[in-house]
Each structure stands twice: as structure tokens, then as C-alpha cells.
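Morning F.,

Quick status update on the modeling queue. The single chain you submitted on Monday has been processed. Sequence for confirmation:
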Amino acid sequence: MRDSASVVIIGGGVVGASVAFHLTERGMTDVVVVDRSSLASGSTGRSAGGVRQQFSTEINCRMSIISVEKLLRFHETTGGEASFVQSGYLFLLSTAEDWALFQRNVALQRSLGIDVELLDPEGAHRHLPPMRTDDLLGATFCPTDGHADPTGVCLGYATAARSRGVEVVAGVTVTGIETQHQRVAAVNTDHGRIATPLVVNAAGPWAAQIAALASVEVPIRPYRRQLYYAERPPEIPATAPMVVEFASSMYFRPEGPGLLLGMTDRSEPSSFNVNTDDAFLAMLVERAVRRVPRFEQVELIRGWAGLYDVTPDANPIIGAVGDLEGFVMAAGFSGHGFMHSPATGQLVAELITDGHTTTLDITPFSAARFASGEISVERNVI
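C-alpha cells below.
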């Protein structure tokens, strides 16, 4: 491992790998990526892989537009495989409040050029006939949403970055961040010291712990999200969209020959727990069968859990924090880190090489928003 670098990226998930790749696109290759385990072994490898443009804030919509474009050109630019399938996202709305919110969302999304449909219950049913829709007020559908392979995207970015000179080191634990005169001086690890003037904290659910090593406080907390892989009944085609029951957060989509099922337990406290439990599974199955009765006969094959890195407004922290020079955050994505990782890599690379971003104004993602109260909550999170 190098003993010095122009940039050290902490976190070998898809965000860190994207930052490394996009730095090389701008001519910066004296970069080290460190991860305490292996690439894509954390939240990235446990993600459901959803990619959507249906958000409630303009900046998140724009992050998605950029990321979708990059995923469509992923092989061309990196040589890797994103396996991006644009099968669409279908949001099911069953309460007056949610239906009103999504009608406002669609107006915003359309104004930005995103092709989104407002559907009545019958229109939603036509997308997936085995599904009950009699309790719905409406639905939204975006055909250019879909899903991709988080591990493939992470490895594609990392491999391309490595081929251009970036050092990617697995099995290295960061133990400290040295500062001198209010700026970053080095990263200490259990494999040695790396002198550096700039650190990118892309540690996802562990980002607050990494920030604390530099005496920086950020409001990012880890929350468990469980999902399951099951057999897919023939009534659910491989081309079916990602279906999200917004009121409960239950979702499902095809995954190869099978089906992914998941949901958020909004009552669960913050933790680093990545075990699955039977009580959650029972709750998930009840919701899934209520929406698609045919699911009662499917066989569950396996389950796993990952972690969301959640902020109070469900938006990430991207950029400098406080008065410490050379410390850049890229974490707190609250469940949309994978789908926004292509855009995030570009924005952070611009920030590092130019001193500011040009693609988007990332002021809404500044850590200072929490002290000033100038926040815009992202409402479309699951």
C-alpha cells in the first residue's frame, strides 16, 4: 500500500468506486481506495439494485437523470457490466395524502423531462394483472426506471480506476485521521499510514464513525433493511416492473428466474444489525400476499439484510464539512446511494479537481443545512 496519495477514499462500495473512477476521468490517478473488507461487501452487495427517477425534490430527480444516462453507457465508459434493465417502477398509492404528493411529484418530474404516467387503479392493474388494485386511488409509472447490478457497477468502476493507476486495497481498517492546522494530513490504518491532503468519506452506514476520527460530527445513522429472494410464479413475467406499495413500503420485482421481496420496518431503531428475523418475514409475507394473492404459494429461498445510511431529511451529505479542509463527505444517501452513485462520483470529482461542482449545485446536500434549517425533505423514500 502506498504511504502517500493525493486522495484517500474510505469505503470500497459503489460510491467510493465511482468517485475513484470519475477522478481518473479528470486526470487524477494518485488515489487510494481502502475498505475494511472487500469491494461491494457492505451495503452495495446487499442492495435491491433499484434505479428510479421518481423523487419529490428537483435535485434528486436530476441526480437520477444523470445516473440513468451513465448506466446506459456503462460498458462503453468503463468496460464493465451494469446489467441495467429499464423495466420501470410502478408506485401504488392508497391514501389521499400519498396520491396528492405523487401528483405533485409527477408535475415536477415531467417539468424536468422525465417520462412518468399518472394511472388510475385499472391502469395499474393492466401493468400486472395478478395484483389487487381495488384499494388504490392511483399509481405512477416511469418506463425508464428499472434495476441494475450493484456489485457489477462497483467492480466496473473499481477495475477501470485500477487500470488507470488507482490503488484499491481491501482488508484495511482505518484507525485514525490525522489533522494539522485544521486540515487533513494523513489516514492511519492497521496496515500503515498514508499521508494525504484529502479524504473522501464514502463509508456509507459507517460514515459517522469515520467522520468522528477527524473530530467531525455528521447526522448519519445506520438502519437495517431486510429483503428476500423467492421463486417467481409464471403469472409474474420477467419483464414486470419494480412494484412499490408506498403506504407500507413493501416492494417486489423480478430477479433472474426468481423474485425479490422487501419492505421497511419503520418502527425499527438504528443499529448495525444485518441478521434477518422471522417476525419481519411474517409481516412482509402478509403484505405481499394481500397485494398479490398468488404469492401465498411461492417458496422463499433465502433472505439477507443490509444497511441504509440515513440522514434526518433523507438526503445525502456531499461536500466539505465544517472548518476542516481536505475532508469531503459522500454518504447519507438514505436508500438511494446505489442509484445515485454515478452522478455522485462525477460531482465529487468536480469538487476535488475544480474546487466546485458544475454539473449540479450541491448546496442542498451541504452538511451546513442541518444547522441553518434550510432543508428540503425527500419524501419519496422506501
